[in-house]
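Section 3.1: Structural characterization of target chains.
Under the original work plan, the team committed to producing a structural model for every single-chain target entering the pipeline before any wet-lab resources were allocated. The record below documents one such target. The sequence was received from the expression subgroup and is listed exactly as submitted; it comprises 151 residues.
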Amino acid sequence: MAHMQTFDGPFMPGAGPSVRLRAVAFIEAPSETLADELAAAGSEIIQRLDGMVIAAFGSAEAALRTCASLPGDARVGLSCGDVLYENGALHGLPVIEASRLRDIATPGQILCAARLVRAGDLPAASFRSVGSIAIRGLVAALPVCEMLRTG
């Protein structure tokens, strides 16, 4: 098992721009209670959009475990790294990656940047490599893994 990497403390709304190391998830699911369920699991809800939630997690493991328990028809994109929180929104490469991965995920699919999987503490058998995917807006292809649901 890999060493669990815990990220920086929570964002402080109203405290001005701040940069934090975070796992970021773009989650699309037909659930009116999705944001409440994610918040109860310890994620920071950054934005609620029609049928989608943008959430930040304090560790890769928390993001992976929480997303593994989402409804079976959820489309999820996950990444991690430094993100800027400013004016109620997240900015940065992990945000772009997670958004694009959610865009290409099929219903029921959880796509993760491979570096998030390496930072988490879940068995390798829980994932399969999808290979490196060209992501719109990025120069280099992104190594991607799919989380395999066990239940």
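Residues 18-147 form a domain with the Alpha-Beta Plaits fold (CATH 3.30.70.1230).
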